[in-house]
Amino acid sequence: MKDPIVLFQDWLQEAVDAGLKDPTAMTVATVDVDGHPDARMLLLKGCDERGFVFFTNMESPKARALRNDSRGALCFFWTQLDRQVRIRGRAAIVSDEEADAYFATRPRLSQISAWASKQSRTMQGYFELEAEVAKAAIRFGIGQVPRPPFWSGFRLVPERIEFWTGKPYRRHQRILYTRTADGWEKQWLYP
Ligand SMILES: Cc1cc2nc3c(=O)[nH]c(=O)nc-3n(C[C@H](O)[C@H](O)[C@H](O)COP(=O)(O)O)c2cc1C
User: Fold this and answer.
1) How far apart are CA 104 and CA 100, in angstroms?
2) Partners of 38 in the beta sheet?
3) Is the dihedral of CA 150, 90, 41, 32 positive or negative?
4) Of 91, 88, 56, 62, which is closest to residue 74 (Cα–Cα)?
5) Residue 28 class from Cβ within 10 Å (0-12 exposed, 13-18 middle, 19+ buried)?
6) Residue 20 beta carbon below 6 angstroms from any ligand 1 atom
7) Residue 44 to residue 63: CA distance in whole angstroms
8) How confident is the model at residue 2 (pLDDT cuts 50, 70, 90)?
9) In this predicted model, what pLDDT tens digit does every residue of 43-94 receive, in sequence order?
10) Is residue 23 a contact partner of residue 16, using CB atoms and an 8 Å limit?
11) Across-strand partners of 77?
């Protein structure tokens, strides 16, 4: 049986090779403090046997939700390939070293934007963001831009991974992998 992480990596690579726009884009679903589900798109920045990594503002609603309830879900859809992957698991904050290393790879203007954005808070208008960007740009001058203390990432450790392949007449193929004590269990699901 193929390891589902390896299978996911293969599918992602095929989406990249197919030239799809934003092949790493995924829906990230969380549960708010009040138990309400929420979902938004993010970019996947890493995937290996440890889990699925994404980066964000740690004061954002999604980060607050995950810090209160680590349960989350990811959903990828590659329309041209007629493939969907659904992942459920628990998210843990990545190490400072890992967040630093990823932040350092970002374009300088994106690094400055990370400092400028109070993600998901309200503002008077777009000019307010532009003013914050200008302030951050002046603050760091031509020096290196460090990672903001309020910016990091999560690694969602998968417990279930489902691979869906579209087939004619709604006879789609679905394979569910569920984590067990010593590996993964594979099951076929009706479409
Ligand atoms: C394709 C796409 C990719 C995105 N990637 C990210 C990302 O990697 N990190 C992030 O914080 N927001 C990303 N966003 C913005 C989020 O969807 C969202 O607007 C923002 O993170 C605030 O979410 P929250 O209020 O639920 O915390 C992306 C949006 C789109 C449409």
Assistant:
1) 6
2) 30
3) negative
4) 88
5) buried
6) no
7) 15
8) confident
9) 999 999 999 999 999 999 999 999 999 999 999 999 999 999 999 999 999 9
10) yes
11) 84
Specify the amino acid at residue 75. C
- d(CA 92, CA 149) in angstroms, rounded, equals 17
Ligand 1 atom at shortest distance from the alpha carbon of 22:
1
Q: For the residues of 145-179, what is the DSSP string, one character each?
A: -PPPTTEEEEEEEEEEEEEEE--GGG--EEEEEEE
Q: Taking the model in full, what pTM does it have?
A: 0.97
DSSP letters, 118-149, are -TT---SSHHHHHHHHHHHHHHHTTS--PPPT
Domain at 4-107+147-189, CATH from 3.40.50.920, 2.60.40.10, 2.30.110.10, 2.40.37.10? 2.30.110.10
Name the residue of 22, 28, 42 to mutate for ligand 1: max ligand atoms within 8 A of Cβ: 42
